[in-house]
Amino acid sequence: MSGHSGRFRRRLSRAPGRSAAPGASPAGNGTGDQPDEGTAGAGGPQHIPPSFPTRSVAREVFLLQLVLVVLLVAAAMVAIVVQAQRDTMTDARHRTLAAAESFAHSWGLQEALNSDNPTAKLQPLAEAARKASGVDALIVYKLDGITLTHSDPRQIGKHVIGPYAEAARGKPFTRTFEGALGLSVVSAAPVKDSSGKVVAIVAAPVTVEKVQKSVNQQLPIFLGTAVGALALAGGGAGLVSRRLRRQTHGLGPAEMTRMYEHHDAVLHAVREGVLIVGRDGRLLLANDEARRLLNLPADAEGRPVGDLGLDHRMAELLASDRIATDEVHLAQDRLLAVNKRSTTPYGAHQGSVVTLRDTTELRWLSGRAEVARERLRLLYDAGMRIGSTLNVERTAEALAQVAVPRFADIVTVELLDPVLKGEEPAVAGTELRRTAIAGLAPDHPLHPVGELRGFVPGTPVAAGVDQGRSMVEPDLAGSSGWRSQDPERARRILDHGVHSLAVVPLRARGVVLGLVDFWRSGSSPPFDDEDLSFAEELAGRAAVGIDNARRYTRERTMAMTLQRSLMPRGLPDQDALEVAHRYLPAQAGVGGDWFDVIPLPGARVALVIGDVVGHGLHAAATMGRLRIAVHNFSALDLSPDELLGHLDELVTHIDVQDEDTDDGPAITGATCLYVIYDYVSGRITAATAGHLPPAVAHPDGRVEFLHAPVSPPLGLGAGLPFETAELALPEGSRLVLYTDGLVENRSHDLDAGMEALRAALAGPDRTPEDTCATVLQSLLPARSTDDVALLVARTRRLDPAQVAEWDVARDPAAVSPVRNDCARQLADWGLERIAYGTELILSELITNAIRYGAEPIHVRLLHTPGTLISEVSDGSSTSPHIRQAKDTDEEGRGLFLVAQFAEHWGTRYSPRGKTIWAAQAVGPDALPEEEESQEDLLSRWDHGGE
């Protein structure tokens, strides 16, 4: 290892900073306090749990110290107990011997022994001495062994059994024996007279247990002292362990060894320079890579950084307190990326750590990587923007705008005319229409948007169109082929500062749709082959978007063409209603909404509105089929409920056919509302097949919805009958029919939309045109997701003076009076010129009703502004029809005569029977009737009718 590793380890062991090795515990705060193990302080390092399951050095040291202390305390306790036992025996010997000798040498003892009753004198003295000395007894006996004193008076006068021969010889002794009271100690001392002759013996026995009690009283003190010593030693060991844990960061011996080995390996083997600079600006540590990068001298450590021969900017940064992140500094011929951070609060000594990375070889690579990143980001943005619309022109504009100025200074897009129209370009031509420009001022010298450009054969651009091949012109000034296309314009383009061009065809599905030109001007670098590859990638993505928009444009154009051909191109002339309408396709394309105004016989008008779910060709085609079917059923003059019933059966039949052929989806989801307005009575009759109810705006400003009985959409009724609703309207009322796209969208639900429609219709009377404008302005969102159809009709009433009615009895004689009354009524109306034909029609129809019909028979004449309608009603449901009468037939020519004098005629049914009607034109453009002779009339009119 390097000679610096030892110093580094010592610094690391002293510094409570964050360990670089795995498993290092949190650093201290430099004051000796242990941080909270749960969370670090603000800005402090986080706790890193040890990655090894072994005990830390601090823990091992603590356990070792604790075991040693316990062993020492245990040994001390054993020694104390043994010593106490020995001291007990010694104390017992000394106590008995001292008691015996003290009493043996007491004053007056010999006098008492020589008295007549030595026991009487000695027993009190012996008891007093026994109690004072703490022995069990003081036994005095003569050499003959007779007891003179004893703690047990019963033993006085008895012979003593025991070893007293040695005392009798004048020598004290002590003996240990096992008595009835347990282990005991007895001492004997001789009593000598004045001549030194032994005259008596004093014995002092004591049990060891008695002496042990006095020693046991000292054991709590001993134990308390031991516990205190143990606690003190354990606390000391804990403090030492805690301090050691801070220094070792909770690591075990193997971990610490591995950590220091890793530190040495990383510090000196990593290809990144590491410097530690003290607060005073002196270099404290430098690894091998830092020495190499900075060319430091061998004795660099400990010297000020200003004396190391570094660049002044580098030396100033190292000596300052400034933080640095990837700052580039020059060190001789190297570019170093310098990062500098303060060691606070990670180290015990304030300073800074500096890392150095040689970026000389990486600068070029990083620049290329940045360019690649930017271009990937540009491709991502292009994919997000270019595919966001299905309009060909806006897609081309998005391509031009996304590439400026991130890839090119100017971008132009040219497309083939068939592509702009949504058609398939069969063969790429050399004429393209400029569709988009981005990056130039209005006074630019390039061809403007919308101009059709032709390319000279043989030029690079023409080759790109014909062959679908990309090309790049790094220097336009030196490109003779490009300049030959339009020399004058080329000169103005070069004068504008444009100097490089990349041309890329827009190719999708193998077909060239157009070209995109990327231009660079000013100080921008010229295009190269790598730029051309990126331009091809960008153009390829854009071509897909343009092709999708082209196909959508084609489909939408076809759908709109089909819808325009199927929708009513104008409203028919009629006098019953003043009508205005609006149709607005959805943003998603053509839908299936439709409406119709259909004049009916008998001064009536049918208003129809319907909706087919979905968009596109299928919805438009389905709408056309339903509209034609409604027209056909209306020609039969059916009531609204009957018409919807037939329409429901038709849709069901069509759905079954479509399921069998798998040609397309069924019509399920179509709705229809059919309303008939009677010009004479002012009543409306409505029936609905799953459609929203019509709104009625009365002249007084009140708005109501005519809720017809609920019926399912077409094709889902399962043969159930439809029902009608009737309402009488005052003249000037506005009848509003609409589709759900007007009142239901994402911003509000259906109920809110209906209330908004009610509010838009309320208020003062307005014309149908103004009503349409107000409703759309109030309810239609900016971008509607569904198409909208709106039909507004203001009612009119036929003047009662223009209506004439007669009830006819079922008698052939009643024909002539009614015919005469009709003639007078026609004269009052000023219609004498058609009186002849009208009388002929009425005579034939009344006669036919009398012969073949049923009562009641009713005749009505309606004089509308342009038509006279003759109606004959009866209670029969049998319908007459025209047939070719043979020469021998006497009947069968009546309806033929009616058809000759009337423009239209027909039959309609009602719950009370049928009505046969005939309409004649009475306007100024009507042709006058030709006068015919009586013979001609008789030859054509047979009074027998049919």
TrEMBL record:
Residues 937-946 have a biased composition (Basic and acidic residues). The keyword Transmembrane applies. Residues 1-13 have a biased composition (Basic residues). Keywords: ATP-binding, Cell membrane, Hydrolase, Kinase, Membrane, Nucleotide-binding, Phosphoprotein, Transferase, Transmembrane, Transmembrane helix, Two-component regulatory system. Its main location: membrane. Residues 387-556 form the GAF domain. Signal peptide: none annotated. Residues 574-795 form the PPM-type phosphatase domain. Residues 261-326 form the PAS domain. Pfam families: GAF, HATPase_c_2, sCache_3_2, SpoIIE. PANTHER family: STAGE II SPORULATION PROTEIN E (PTHR43156:SF2), STAGE II SPORULATION PROTEIN E-RELATED (PTHR43156). This is SpoIIE family protein phosphatase. It comes from Streptomyces decoyicus.
